[in-house]
Write the structure tokens for this entry.
Amino acid sequence: MEKKFWNEAAENMSRDELSDLQWKKLTRQMDYIYNSSSYFKRQFDDIDLHPNDLRNIEEFRELPIFMDKQSDRETQEISREKLGHPFGEYLCASPRDVRAIHSTSGTTGVPVFEAFTQHDIFVQNEVVARTFWRAGLRPGDYVLHVSGLSMWLGGMVPMRAYEYMGLAGIPVGAESGISRVLDTAKLVKAKGMFCIPSFAEYIIRKTPEIAGLAASDLGIRIVIAVGEPGAGIPETRKKLQEGFGAKIFDSTGGIWGFAAISCDCEDYQGMHLVCEDYHYLDIVDPATKKPVDMSAGGGIGEMVHTALEWEAGPAFRYALGDVIELMTQTCTCGMPGMRMKYKGRIDDLLIVKGVNVFPAAVKGVIDSFIPKVTGEMRIVLTTPPPRVDPPLRMKLEYGHGVGKHERQALARTIENEISARLRIRPAIEMVPPDTLEKDPSKKARLIEKKF
Ligand SMILES: [Zn+2]
């Protein structure tokens, strides 16, 4: 019989076995980072603590945040100027042991670099392979790689993992354009596709026109959607399932041994962590940075990464501003492991009359009205977030063929629905289809700044 998991031993551990292993690896990792990086040593020294003082995971959870976007910038500046490399003062390995480098465009314009040792590459391949296996990909299968090759985690990380697992990745990349993507898809007949969900939607729209067939005729049966929460939004998921005649999986991770993928449940249950032997995922209150109580089966908070076995630039109490729901109860699919649902960016959080609203949640409601609307929308902000002077103003494209008289009633219906589901009442301005600018190769833009 075919095995259920890529790594049966690691992915099937009991909660107790896993907790023991996590603590063992964490203490070793803390020793390693304390002794190999002046940055980490200083963080511990600043709170008058030695890693050996910590007795259990509860005490570890009380540690402050050690790393964030701000510290990335500062330590990379220090390492560029004083250490002769761009990887940040928290590089624990020798720069000579770096075997892969990734960069992202930093918010200040200076690229942010991340380094990987040979062992880090192994860890990352291993956890990503676990997600591919759970999606149904098997050695010998082909995967059309349509997410940007220069992208941070969407590019070379999966490309390496395909090979590690015995798949063949076809590196076409969204940046090569829709025609090239479709030509390749038609000729190679890949079973899997790795893509951002909005580009997957774009492929469904464009295939008949450019390739003269339906997207479902391309032979793609497994879509791994990354980079945007699309596959977790029921309407988007349904659209992709039907458009390709494929199973759609929502996936994230790859770095620091972090990886998660959604399951096959009819209703979206979040992404199952497949990596708890390599990575400790925590959540803290976004305002106080104190650990969120998860005794009742989970909670909502800011995502905090800690790598348990990472050499180059390990995440340690690393908060990147993503808000998630973390669930500890067993999923209806019966697969083990904690699950997470992406809620939004702390930077995106809007507060309307004291109610927290994420633009992605608004988009979720809007998408349930497709095809009465195109799904393209903007929240118009006239002052800097998070506080919004009510009402929340929105522009929304009505669908093709929606008559003049219908539009006002439709706007009111959608306002009511948002009010019922998100507890805020927006003021919606309907605009014609194709009015709001979009770039299908990029992530959907939900905010229009007018300040
Ligand atoms: Zn599940």
